[in-house]
Amino acid sequence: MLYPFLASLACSLALLAAAAAAAEPEAQPEAVAGPDTAAKPERTGKPHIAGRPHTAGWPDTPGRPDTAAEPRTAAGPDTLEGLLGLLESGKYEEVAKRSRALLRETQAGFGEESCEAAQVMDVLVAALVHNESVAGEEALRLAERSLAIKEAKLGADHLEVARSLHGLANVLRDRGDGAKAKRLYERALGIRSQALGPDHVEVARTLDDLVWLRLRIGQAADLKTEIDRSLDIEERALGREDASLRRCLTNLGFWHAGRGENDKASAAFERALSCAEKCLGPDHPDVGLLLVYVAAARERQGRLEEARSIQERASPILERTLGPEHPRTQVALVNTAWVLYRLARFRESKEIYARSLRIAEKIYPREHTDRAYALYGYSLACWRLKDLGEAKTRCGEALEIWKKAWAQRTDRSGWRSRSWPTSFATSPNSRRRSLSTRRRWGS
Prior knowledge:
Serine Threonine Protein Phosphatase 5, Tetratricopeptide repeat
């Protein structure tokens, strides 16, 4: 719940003042990369669907292309298959750049309203969602256009339509429209369940994203059954160590964490990390993000030095792979600062909170809740260092952001934070700890 957090912030302020193949049509011809290949597919009554675009990954949780099991070695970097390989490897900015070029070529060769062009749009949307702090107008426009093209040419219940529905849901989720995103995920889930059967791996992957959204907007009732179902499907289809399991295991970790079951949460995150490291290598951005989760779980278990060590490993990976001003990098800094705060290393904590706040000011709107996390932590460090004026100002800003976020969540089931519940520093248990500490201060 958020209400106790608002109460604790107000309390602080008073004291200081006084975020297998799913969509292949039957008898699908061999994947064609685009109009620059030697021969275009023969035109038949059914539009040709080249390759299988990624739509299931989340920008703020470990994600994966829908086609993780397909070979990538034969495809060049400027083909649809090559772009999927780059996306899987976490090179989101490069994918976005190359996708724009391939989209222009595909539109010139197949037509602006072709299914081939819509598929490239899906890949570009996925890259933008992964690489942007908040999904922008370009991602929304492309996702809506891809869906409209496929619905017009293939019908409303085609598997390719489910893919575009999934991509549009990702964009809407990051723009704060949780209610509409949920409806689109559910529609995509229905299409895939009907076409592929309820136990298909693509159904499980869609279910993973729907579960994550429900965790994110506070609709966590009865989710354990869905998480267990998804994990069972994926383990039977892919094995127990496939990288694709990291999404479902992340959901499981947060479900346990939300109930204070910190040992079980830590075990789920550690297993997800192991799958990612074995399949993706140690320098993948999802490995960095999962290290943040593992460190956060350690912090909640009171294993602070371990948490600090893991966080210090995570931040360089995220900076190298995503850049120093990416949302994931900013979240990693916030969590590192929180661990240092709990270790009573207040000056170091303040410096890192200040850096994370500078990044947040650049990449987020002023009302974004990830900015509030940084503001709140910075205010606590300032208070410990006796800088009461700065602490009061920053705490007040954080309180106003959280008030607006609470109202938005209550009214529309929307949620603007891309990273909730990434930061355990502001999870319910930690907020109660902080409130208890402030009571000892004399409030």
